[in-house]
Amino acid sequence: MTTVRLPLFPLNSVLFPGLVLPLNVFEERYRAMMRDLLKTPEDEPRRFAVVAIRDGHEVAPSAPGMPDPTALPELGPAAGFGAEPAKSFHATGCVADAATIRERADGTFEVLATGTTRARLVSVDASGPFLTADLEELPEDPGDEAGALAEGVLRAFRQYQKRLAGARERSLSTGADLPDEPSVVSYLVAAAMMLDIPTKQRLLQAPDTASRLRDELKLLRSETAIIRSLPSLPASDLTRGRTSLN
């Protein structure tokens, strides 16, 4: 299994392969990361790893806090993640490729990245200006009956979209808008569903595509039934991801 060392960007969200990740980078540790990534030649991928935070803060405290209101905020690449930052993160994350890194006049960055492949966290290094990690890239095994499961998930997802949007006559997306490759379906649905981080993380680290699709089918049926029982629910845009605060 291939091991790579990459800059590490912890977030209060789960990134899936193929999904777009907009970032608003303002903390110095992540600004240093982006400056380093900009040194990569333009014809090479500017890769970093995204992991979901299990215990900690996406943005480090920047003012005196509790219980001592006079205590200085914690600084450094591992601020907010404790003495052993690896324990603050979920072990499976996603490698991202930054297609756009734009520095603003104030030194902050606007970044647009795309998830590429899953990776397992092996170790975390906090000795530099930003966190880096050794990771093992994970292959995507299709598993058994992935094609048939993907078709069932797409049907259930369309019903879920209709219920979530409060529209019985039409869905938020037409069939032409949705993919049919099983692994792509599995990641798109995992990202689009309104789920908490632990559930999305479970889907990310599924052993194969078929297992992920089976889990999603159960979730879609359950969530659709719950939505159906509610008196009303506001429409939601399932195509737009949350921009990280940073």
UniProtKB/TrEMBL annotation:
Q: Domain Lon N-terminal, which positions?
A: 6-224
- SMART domains attached to this UniProt entry: LON
Where exactly are the transmembrane stretches of this chain?
A: none
Query: Entry's Pfam families?
Result: LON_substr_bdg (PF02190)
Q: Where is the signal peptide?
A: none
* Native source organism of the sequence: Streptomyces coacervatus
Give the matching InterPro entries. Answer: Lon_prtase_N (IPR003111), Lon_prtase_N_sf (IPR046336), PUA-like_sf (IPR015947)
Q: Which domain of life is it from?
A: Bacteria
This chain's protein is named LON peptidase substrate-binding domain-containing protein
